[in-house]
Design brief:
InterPro entries: HD_phosphohydro. This is N-methyl-D-aspartate receptor NMDAR2C subunit. It comes from Variovorax robiniae. The protein is an all-alpha fold and 209 residues long. It has one domain (3-208). Helices cover 68% and strands 0% of the residues. It has helices at residues 3-16, 23-36, 46-59, 66-75, 87-102, 106-118, 128-138, 145-158, 164-179, 188-208. The longest helix has 21 residues, at 188-208.
Length: 209
Amino acid sequence: MDDLVLHRFWSDALARVGIAETPFTGQLFTELCAHYREAHRGYHTMQHLAECLSLLQLHIAEAEHPGEVALALWFHDAIYDVPGHDNEERSADWARDALIAAGLSKDAAQRVHALVMATRHSAIPEGRDACLLVDVDLAILGAPAERFAEYERQIRVEYAHVPPEVFEPRRRAILSQFLAREPLFQTPAIRAAREAQARVNLQAAITRS
């Protein structure tokens, strides 16, 4: 996805929440894109963001606050430090502060903050917006087998510094937690399209690791 298409997604998200485009929002777009293009990323890249934005566009009618969900998606992996344990919190803080500076109300900015925090995937999301955002973020689990295999390789690149005897059991535990969710996807349309393939992908990955 080229920058022109990406900028259309960005502009649409801003328009949905009533934020006018300014030099500040233009600089914010540039900074976000630069973060997703950082060299150390393997999966949490512009490819992932573009796939998520495209999928969200298909299901945007499911959202209560579609612009807020779209903006949360832009920020959800904005900070990605592989060894770090506060990436979502730092991303959420950046989203809230930057969007308030851009003209979003504090209440709406706090909702965006909460949405970004939901992508920690530490609990089943609550509320239509959080469910939709999390489902879009996790949709890769239900991707066709070839794309899922690429995703697995990309994750391994990000954790290349972790030896196999440490990485593999931890990865198996994470994938097993997702497989144990009933259902995995909370948004009905995404569940119908992705749930069955996700379970095939996850079971195969757990068996291989």
